[in-house]
């Protein structure tokens, strides 16, 4: 297939590379000229696993364009993967999606070529049927119908495993303006998966609701396990893993994501949960679950900080081991390590950190003081909290034993 990918960021670039190595002719565009030049040069070193390998393999089939009009020329499908930042209200902003659709519409204006525009960026319910379809029709002078299709196809992926998650998804979620449009998107996605994947095709608004609802259900499950973790730590003689493993044996519940640990974080879970709360508010409905989940997640960070404070002396130096929100990425957006560290800093503790992914905080000099190794971290602090799974947990446990330092491993990796 001839496909364009508009937006070559943390999600768009892996998708473009994966489509290209899977036999498609892919034209990529990003607003950042430096990003385009970097990809063209072949001298990149992206941290996302397997991305560099796939980009090198796809150099002949992944063509980087310097404009949207050039990228979408003669293609049959356009994936739009641009930022939809959260507003203070929790709502997602469609500004960058609208801008992209305006340029795409202008480029196809007057053309009779059959084409599908597929929005991958997470948007609020009613966006595609409302603001986004209006922008596309206005800029193109064409009606969405038999020759112009609009789809919504958000990905369920995590940074640090983007390519794997695209190859082995649980499902393909496709909101479609028409059957033929959804079928085209599904056929493109089938070229990159490595097993049979169920597809669920539905209306655009239904798919928009599914996306944020799925992530909110997961965050509720995480928060439920963390609620029990607080009870286990307070009761002292309770093994939280024994408790959650038993609960998960009930087939109505299951063990996946029922692991008590750190607060959830990253660029998707927190904001999708808040977006669902915003939606309910806009609809005039009472939203107790998503609001409670967001509140419980913040409370869990506060509980962990309080627990650490209660188990250290007044001005103890605290070491944060694992600052990025998960293994395999340097992203610190809403990371548990950042949240817990900031709360402890407010209580007067000096915060030092080490991260095996080389993540760096935004304000390292004022609050977070870096150490260049796990041993340096442990030797320089009075208490260590391990906030996420580590690439080599055995090493940190050996170092903790060597220096006989008290610690709290929220993931119990020892």
Summing up helix and strand content along with how strands pair, one would put the structural category as alpha/beta
Question: What percent of the residues sit in helical stretches (DSSP H or I)?
Answer: 40-55%
How many helical elements? 15
- Radius of gyration from the alpha-carbon trace, in angstroms: 23 Å
**CATH topology label of the largest domain:** Rossmann fold
- The number of strands is 13
Q: How are the strands ordered across the major sheet?
A: 3-2-1-4-5-6-7-8
Q: What top-tier CATH class of the largest domain fits best?
A: Alpha Beta
Query: What is the mean pLDDT?
Result: 96
Order of helices and strands: EHEHHEHEHEHEHEHEHHHHEHEEHEHE
* CATH architecture heading of the largest domain: 3-Layer(aba) Sandwich
Largest sheet: 8 strands, mixed
**Unreliable residue runs:** none
Strand fraction equals 5-15%
> What is the total number of structural domains?
2
Cα(first) to Cα(last) distance is 48 Å
What would the principal axes of the Cα set say about the shape? globular
Tell me the CATH superfamily of the largest domain: NAD(P)-binding Rossmann-like Domain
Key traits:
single chain, 414 residues, alpha/beta, Rossmann fold, 2 domains, eight-stranded mixed β-sheet, five-stranded parallel β-sheet, 15 helices
Short summary of the structure?
With 414 residues, the chain is an alpha/beta fold. The strands form two sheets. It has an eight-stranded mixed sheet, with helices on both faces. The protein is globular, with a radius of gyration of 23 Å.
Secondary-structure topology with pairs:
Blueprint: E1 2-6, H1 12-21, E2 25-29, H2 33-41, H3 51-57, E3 62-64, H4 68-71, E4 77-80, H5 95-108, E5 115-119, H6 128-140, E6 148-152, H7 162-167, E7 172-176, H8 179-190, E8 199-202, H9 204-235, H10 240-248, H11 269-282, H12 289-310, E9 318-321, H13 336-346, E10 351-354, E11 368-370, H14 374-380, E12 383-386, H15 393-403, E13 407-409
Parallel strand pairs: 1-2, 1-4, 2-3, 4-5, 5-6, 7-8, 9-10, 9-12, 10-11, 12-13
Antiparallel strand pairs: 6-7
């Amino acid at each position: 297939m001839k496909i364009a990918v508009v937006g070559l960021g943390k999600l768009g670039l892996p998708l473009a590379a994966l489509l290209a190595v899977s036999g498609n002719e892919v034209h990529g565009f990003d607003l950042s000229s430096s990003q385009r030049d970097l990809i063209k040069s072949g001298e990149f070193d992206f941290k996302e696993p397997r991305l560099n390998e796939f980009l090198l393999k796809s150099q002949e089939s992944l063509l980087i364009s310097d404009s949207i009009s050039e990228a979408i020329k003669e293609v049959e499908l356009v994936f739009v993967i641009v930022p939809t930042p959260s507003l203070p209200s929790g709502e997602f902003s469609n500004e960058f999606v609208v801008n992209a659709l305006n340029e795409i519409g202008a480029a196809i204006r007057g053309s009779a070529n059959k084409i599908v525009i597929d929005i991958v960026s997470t948007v609020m319910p009613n966006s595609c049927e409302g603001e986004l379809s209006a922008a596309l029709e206005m800029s193109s002078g064409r009606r969405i119908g038999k020759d112009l299709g609009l789809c919504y196809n958000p990905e369920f992926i995590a940074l640090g495993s983007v390519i794997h998650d695209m190859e082995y998804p649980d499902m393909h979620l496709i909101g479609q303006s028409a059957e033929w449009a959804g079928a085209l998107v599904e056929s493109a996605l089938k070229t990159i998966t490595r097993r049979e994947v169920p597809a669920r095709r539905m209306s655009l608004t239904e798919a928009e609701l599914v996306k944020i609802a799925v992530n909110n259900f997961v965050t509720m499950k995480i928060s439920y396990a963390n609620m029990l973790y607080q009870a286990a730590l307070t009761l002292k003689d309770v093994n939280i893993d024994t408790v959650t493993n038993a609960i998960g044996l009930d087939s109505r519940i299951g063990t996946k994501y029922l692991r008590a640990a750190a607060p959830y974080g990253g660029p998707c879970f927190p904001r999708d949960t808040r977006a669902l709360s915003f939606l309910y508010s806009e609809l005039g409905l009472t939203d107790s679950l998503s609001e409670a989940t967001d509140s419980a997640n913040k409370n869990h960070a506060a509980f962990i900080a309080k627990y650490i404070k209660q188990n250290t002396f007044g001005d103890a130096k605290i070491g944060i081991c694992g600052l990025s929100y998960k293994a395999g990425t340097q992203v610190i957006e809403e990371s548990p390590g950042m949240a817990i560290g900031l709360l402890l800093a407010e209580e007067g503790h000096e915060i030092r950190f080490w991260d095996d992914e080389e993540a760096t905080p935004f304000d390292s000099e004022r609050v977070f003081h870096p150490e260049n190794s796990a041993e340096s971290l442990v030797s320089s602090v009075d208490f260590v909290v391990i906030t996420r799974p580590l690439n080599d947990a055995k090493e940190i446990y050996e170092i903790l034993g060597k220096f006989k330092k008290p610690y709290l491993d929220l993931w119990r990796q020892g």
